[in-house]
Design a protein that fits this description.
The complex is a heterodimer of chains A (about 300) and B (about 350). Chain A is an all-alpha fold and about 300 residues long. Helix content of chain A is about 65%, strand content about 0%. Classes of the chains: A mainly alpha (about 300), B alpha+beta (about 350).
Chain lengths: ~300, ~350
């Protein structure tokens, strides 16, 4: 009369790890969604890579999913060295180096300013620091377009409009709210007693920042670098508005190549150019992923 | 000689006044413990002495100098924190020497001081390790060492043992006491653990609501608490309180409980003349109540036992007198039954009597 006898499946005495069903509905759901998402993103990439490796005749066949019959790197070389943007036919390499010259100083300056701001706001409460923080928070929600025109006037007033410096300054300004927020929250999460101990030890504002806080901040700097490099590299609007024609970054140049309406549309070259432009953020993601080391703060406090 | 002196100190966080008009004098070489429940302002007071927070009013004097506006590093203090606060990216040795390197102390002097502190705290083999490679007790030793190498006269401890497990806490407590005896420095120590307070302190300042309730030696604190808060906070298991009305007729003071039980108080040293009819609270510690009238001048309490808790070395008997619950620390060899009616005895001269309303000792 026992319940066990009624249900033979439960006759086995439960012992050890609980058996899991291989195809539980939840598992199917999760994998299903992941596979669909992966296909959704990977198919266009596949088409681009394949097209960029084909000759123009093969592209004209119109079979975009077929792998190239004859692999050629010619479109890549052309995109890099001799693709035409309007009157100039020097390829994307010009824009690449302009982008490098914009991105490197913008990333360094914006992160330097943002980290010091965040540190000051988190650890050195000064009169009005809460107010300042609120302004920054509001600032991070203001759409860029609203500020575009005033910034053009301001940069031309100080005489840097249409130079690389205008772009760098604008990127630093627009990076400040979100970077300050990022760093403030990180520094506020570090144990306050570390800061107190350093003050008892006699370290000042910069001493604590460089000797105590910075060595513990590798993870957040990695995050900030990823954020800024990809953001600034992918920027189109500021480059177009502030840099001036000779200083157009890679993204603007890419647009000019792809959208030029003279002659034949060289899809293979366009695909190669687009992939080349996207290569830098892609590399950043792959390389810096490893730098996300945990446990930087391990041992500072209990645990 | 007064070594650390806090005068009319006021601290507030926003609109909340944490400390107001607080005075505290610490003698040279004294071990003072600030004891109190969380939120009582004890850590705030310590941080104010260290100069780690902005004060509203008052002064802080250390070693005869007014340091109210001085930076923490200029006050001649060393501080040890609850969470150790070791710099995680530096070795133990670099942690010890950080302050000295900031102050540009000569290399051989640094080496000499590290050697001394490391020997004193027995952390020599640990010097090249990072904090993450140290156990909790070792980390706290390094943190104490960091205060030690600064060659200061005043040490501030902010609940330094609270993060350690019970066994380590006991060990380090003894070591701290030894350290104090060896160094003879002034130490101010914040804790919420009354055992730490009673074992370590020369004098304990019991704080509540931002006010020092009583500043006295551990013995005085335990035997003659000045008010009901101190009486209830210090001592474990807690002091028993029996409330009733004071009766002072014909020179034999007594307290009458709600249900008419009269407890004779002959022998109790009143602070003033007892006035009859005043609502009062009688406080008796569990170990001051005995089930046999072996001591002179005792008063009896008729009790009905309700719960018995054996605690190893002794047993805690819980009984009822009228509506009040009373605990008695009894020898574990004694056998009692629940529901049994017994007569318990205590000496009124060792008990405490408080005003029911103000809580002040009578």
């Amino acid at each position: 009369m026992s319940a066990v006898a009624l249900n033979p499946a439960e006759a086995v005495e439960p012992s050890g790890p609980k058996p899991r069903r291989r195809f539980a509905p939840a598992t199917i759901m999760v994998y299903g969604v992941l596979i669909v998402a992966a296909v959704y993103y990977l198919i266009p990439l596949y088409v681009m890579v394949m097209t960029s490796l084909k000759g123009l005749e093969e592209v004209r066949l119109g079979n975009i999913f077929a792998p190239p019959l004859e692999v050629t790197l010619q479109p890549w070389v052309k995109a890099w060295t001799s693709a035409c943007t309007g009157l100039y036919c020097e390829g994307l390499q010009v824009g690449f180096w302009k982008s490098v010259r914009i991105t490197v100083p913008s990333v360094i300056v914006s992160i330097a300013v943002g980290s010091v701001n965040g540190y000051a706001l988190a650890n050195w409460r000064f009169k009005g620091s809460e107010f300042f923080f609120t302004i920054l928070l509001v600032g991070s929600f203001i759409p860029y377009q609203v500020l575009l025109f005033p910034l053009v006037l301001m940069t031309s007033a100080i005489g840097i409009y249409s130079t690389i410096w205008a772009v760098i300054v604008v990127h630093t300004i627009f990076g400040m709210p979100v970077l300050t927020l990022l760093f403030r929250n990180y520094f506020a999460s570090l144990p306050i007693e570390l800061f107190k101990a350093a003050r008892v030890d006699g370290a000042g504002f910069w001493g604590i920042f460089f000797r105590i806080m910075l060595p513990m901040s590798l993870p957040i700097f990695t995050v900030a670098i990823i954020l800024q490099v990809t953001g600034i590299w992918n920027d189109y609007l500021f480059g177009l508005v502030f840099a001036g024609q000779p200083n157009y970054p890679m993204t603007v140049q890419l647009n000019n190549i792809v959208n030029s309406i003279q002659g034949v549309r060289e899809y293979n070259v366009n695909m190669a150019a687009t992939l080349l432009t996207g290569l830098v953020p892609l590399t950043i993601y792959f390389v810096s992923g490893r730098l996300f080391v945990r446990g930087i703060a391990a041992g500072a406090v209990k645990g | 000689m007064v070594h650390v002196s806090v005068k009319k100190l006021g601290v507030s966080f926003g609109h909340l006044k944490v400390l107001r008009d607080l005075d505290l004098d610490v003698q040279e070489g004294e071990f003072i413990v600030l004891l109190g429940p969380s939120g009582c302002g004890k850590s705030t007071l310590l941080n104010a002495i260290a100069g780690l927070l902005d004060i509203d009013a008052g002064q802080v004097w250390i070693a005869g100098k007014n340091v109210t506006w001085k930076e923490p590093a200029e006050r001649g203090i060393g501080m040890v924190f609850q969470s150790y606060a070791l710099y995680p990216r530096m070795t133990a040795e670099r942690n010890l020497t950080f302050g000295l390197r900031v102050a540009r102390v000569p290399k051989d002097e640094i080496a000499r001081r590290v050697e001394r502190a490391a020997t004193l705290l027995q952390i020599k083999p640990l010097l090249q390790r990072r904090p993450a490679e140290l156990s909790g007790g070792q980390r706290q030793r390094v943190a104490i060492g960091r205060a030690l190498v600064r060659d200061v006269e005043v040490f501030l401890f902010d609940e330094p043992l609270s993060n350690l497990d019970a066994k380590l806490r006991t060990e380090l407590r003894v070591e701290l006491k030894k350290l104090h005896m060896q160094l003879g420095s002034t130490m101010i120590y914040v804790t919420h653990d009354q055992i730490e307070a009673l074992t370590l302190a020369d004098r304990v300042a019991v704080m509540n609501g931002g006010v020092i309730q009583q500043l006295a030696s551990p013995k005085e604190l335990y035997q003659r608490p000045v008010n009901r808060f101190v009486a209830g906070f210090v001592g474990s298991p807690a002091m028993n309180f029996i409330s009733g009305k004071l009766e002072a007729s014909n020179g034999a003071p007594a307290i009458v409980c709600g249900d008419g039980v009269r407890i004779d108080l002959a022998g109790y040293a009143f602070a003033g003349r007892p006035d009859g009819g005043r609502p009062a609270v009688l406080g008796v510690r569990p170990e001051q109540i005995h089930l046999v009238p072996e001591l002179p001048e005792t008063t009896s309490l008729p009790l009905k036992l309700t719960v018995i808790e054996p605690m190893g070395a002794d047993s805690l008997l819980w009984g009822e007198i009228g509506k009040e619950t009373v605990s008695i620390r009894a020898n574990s060899d004694e056998t009692h039954a629940i529901g049994e009616s017994v007569n318990a005895y205590f000496q009124p001269k060792r008990a405490s009597l408080f005003d029911a309303e103000s809580g002040v000792r009578l």
